[in-house]
Amino acid sequence: LVSRKKQKENTIVDLKGEAIGDGQQRLIMGPCAVESYEQVTAVAKAMKARGLKLLRGGAFKPRTSPYDFQGLGLEGLQILQRVAKEQDMVVISEIVSPSDIEMAVEYIDVIQIGARNMQNFELLKAAGSVNKPVLLKRGLSATIEEFIHAAEYIVSKGNSQIMLCERGIRTYEKATRNTLDISAVPILKQETHLPVLVDVTHSTGRRDLLLPTAKAAFAIGADAVMAEVHPDPAVALSDSAQQMDIPTFNTFIDELTASGLYK
Ligand code: PEP
Ligand code: MN
């Protein structure tokens, strides 16, 4: 069902007037994790000042170590919902348990399925059974074919509002956290009719590479770029090394716009 052979026209995912896949390039930004109402509000205000509405933030954080911050859970979703209302934002947040999907749709606008859960088939089926857009990330070691099959799980349950997100894959290269597979973007656009996004934060793990990879993503045809922003990355409870602070976020937008690749 997600194949270009089945449907020639691009799928457009409408996020409260902010369409993804309609030819307009979008930025999805926000903190790695929801830490407090004040923290999310600070980022939302900075985004709003630049005309951005698509706010991300993790409430359920799938961390490599069980001793790392696991997220605020339901309280995090409640914070996102409150900020979305107050600042007129569209909120995107990762859900990790199939049993939380029904509850989550009451609070957020987009369900994110993270890299670690790309082949959690029960989660994919649960997300496919609700009427809410899904942002599906490519698995850490997933082939493009496996990624497309994961999307197919969601659509096969009736939900066709899916965005695919390339977020880097595991290779032997250690200079970046993952290896951004930039050619996955045109391949996914050829093979499927779904919008394709690039997450520059988790693919590189390096703040100095966010701008060049965002330019590359738009140059190669990505519909949107995702990057993390935190009011004070030094004290962030996760991904401290690669989140942008607010002045850096503003410079990022300025330079991306000046490059002519983001309009
Ligand atoms: C995230 O976007 O918050 C995240 C954890 O990313 P990924 O699933 O791509 O590692
Ligand atoms: Mn992160």
TrEMBL record:
Which EC number applies?
2.5.1.54, 5.4.99.5
Top-level taxon of the source organism: Bacteria
Q: List the GO molecular function terms.
A: 3-deoxy-7-phosphoheptulonate synthase activity; chorismate mutase activity
Q: Keywords of this protein's UniProt record, alphabetized?
A: Isomerase, Transferase
Residue ranges that the Swiss-Prot or TrEMBL entry lists as coiled coil: none
Q: What is this protein's name?
A: 3-deoxy-7-phosphoheptulonate synthase/chorismate mutase
